[in-house]
Amino acid sequence: METMQKIPMTVQGAKKLRAELDQLKRVERHKIIEAIAEARAHGDLKENAEYHAARERQSFIEGRIQDLEAKLSRAQVIDVKQLPRDGRVVFGVTVDVVESDGETEHRFQIVGDEEADFKAGKISVSSPIARALLGKYEGEVVQVKTPSGRREFEILAVHYL
After folding, report:
1. What is the mean pLDDT of the chain?
2. Which of 52, 78, 104 is the last residue of a domain?
3. Any idea what the CATH number is for the domain that residue 135 is in?
4. Is residue 8 a contact partner of residue 109, using CB atoms and an 8 Å limit?
5. Total domains, the chain
6. How far is Cα 49 from Cα 114, in angstroms, rounded to an integer?
7. Is residue 4's pLDDT more than 90?
8. Which of 17, 24, 63, 76 could form a disulfide with 6 if both were Cys (CB 3.0 to 4.6 A apart)?
9. What pLDDT, in 10s, does the model give residues 79-97?
10. Residue 115's domain spans which residues?
11. Closest to 93 (Cα-Cα) out of 80, 106, 84
12. b vs e for 53-63, b when ≥16 Cβ sit within 10 Å of the residue's Cβ?
C-alpha cells in the first residue's frame, strides 16, 4: 500500500486553507446551487449561458474543495513556537540574511509550497534559497544557485515567530 507523503505546513497556512474550505462548503456551494436552480428556471438548458457558467463554477468549487481536503488530510502542521530555539534554520522559521554585497538584506519565512508568496517574504521549502538555508545556523554563509545566477547569503538571525 502506498503511503501518502506528508505536506509540511505552518499553523497559519493550515488555518488559511481551513478557512477557504469552510467558505467554499458553507457559502459558495449554496450560492452556486441557487444560481443553477435560477438558471434552470429560465428554460432551455442547451442555450442557457447562465446555466453553463454556473455548472462550470460548481465544477471548479467542487474540485477546489477536494484539493483542499486532500492537502489538509496530508498536512503535517508545524508550530514554529514549539521548536527548539537553537539558531538553526528549519521549516517555518523566519530568517534574516544579507547578500555578499553587504548591503542587500532580506527576511524570508520558510513555508510549505501552498503558502509560498515571495512578495510577502514567504518562500517555499522546496525553493533553491530555502534548501540552501535549511540546517544552517546564524552566522553561516550559504551559496545558492538561483535562476538569476549564484548568490551568497550570510544568516544574520533566525526567528521562531
Report:
1. 92
2. 78
3. 3.10.50.30
4. no
5. 2
6. 33
7. no
8. 76
9. 999 998 999 999 999 999 9
10. 80-159
11. 80
12. ebbeebeebee
As given in the structure block, the three cell numbers for residue 43 are 428554460
- What contacts 24+ positions apart, CB below 8 Å, involve 139-148? 141/100
% of the chain residues with pLDDT over 90: 77
pLDDT tens, residue by residue, 6-37: 899 999 999 999 999 999 999 999 999 999 99
CA dist 154 and 31 (Å) reads 51
C-alpha distance from residue 154 to each of 14, 106, 149 (Å): 30, 10, 17
Q: What is the rounded CA–CA span in Å between residue 78 and residue 76?
A: 6
C-alpha cell at 132: 540552501
Strands (E), 37-148: 75-78, 94-99, 105-111, 122-124, 141-146
